[in-house]
Each structure stands twice: as C-alpha cells, then as structure tokens.
Write a structure and sequence with these properties.
Blueprint: H1 3-12, E1 23-28, H2 32-38, E2 47-53, E3 57-63, E4 69-77, E5 81-87, E6 93-100, E7 103-110, H3 118-128
Antiparallel strand pairs: 1-2, 2-3, 3-4, 5-6, 6-7
Length: 134
C-alpha cells in the first residue's frame, strides 16, 4: 500500500487527518471459535485496518483483504479509551489493545509489511513520540 494512495483517500473523503508517520496497518483476527468451527474459512473474517493516531483521537479506517479502502471510518477520542497497552513482538508482529465502552479491542500489528515500506518506520516513530506506550 502506497502512502500516496492513503493521501488521496484522505483528500477525496475529506477526512480531517494529518498524514505524517502517525499511521499503521493492523488487523483484528477472527474469533477462536470461528477458526475451530470454520477452519480455513475463518480467515475471511479477519478485519484489515489503518490506524491513525491523532492528537486527540484514534481514527480507524477499514480495508479490504486486497488493501482497498472501505467506507468504514470511525474515530475514538483518547478520553474514551482505557487500559491502552502495546506489546512489541520480537520478530513478526506486535499487539495493541485497549478498552472502549467496556469492550476490549486487540489489534495485531505486523512489525514489517512487504507492500507497506512505511510500517516499521511509523511504528518506531509512534513509540518514540509517545502515541503508543513503550
């Protein structure tokens, strides 16, 4: 996914997002029971997302399995987020989790994405600048 495509999406949808190094690709896995029940088909239930860390809110933009944007966009004020945790993975992926309205969200964040060269650099930037805890 090219940064230019993300910029174009933000402009064309008139989203109030600043694009620098403040975004990451993430995914939410299918629930364990879906893997047990549907096995390989559960992979279709994985949510692909871009997370934008703004000054006052986290904006989440949906992606299709091939990386195209969906119409799913929503923002959560940091005031409404609790139990914000980040666990840096040693090799392949890290985990970001938080509570919002008593529901726990767990995002898998790849440390490196082959088609998104910005992922590793942005992850380091967000940690360094305090957007995500070390």
């Amino acid at each position: 996914m090219k940064k230019e495509n993300i910029e174009e999406y933000i402009k064309s949808n008139e989203l109030d997002l600043e694009l620098n190094q403040n975004f990451l690709y993430a995914q939410i896995d299918a629930k364990l029971w879906k893997y047990a029940l549907f096995q390989a088909a559960a992979v279709l239930d994985i949510s692909h997302l871009l997370l934008f860390f703004g000054e006052k809110e986290l904006t989440i933009v949906g992606l299709t399995t091939v990386g195209n944007f969906t119409s799913d966009v929503f923002s959560i004020s940091y005031d409404q987020i609790s139990d914000f945790k980040f666990k840096k993975g040693m090799l392949l992926q890290s985990t970001l989790s938080f509570l919002h309205k008593k529901e726990k969200y767990i995002f898998k964040i790849p440390n490196v994405v082959l088609v998104a060269k910005w992922q590793k650099e942005n992850l380091n930037y967000l940690q360094r600048e305090g957007f995500i805890p070390n």
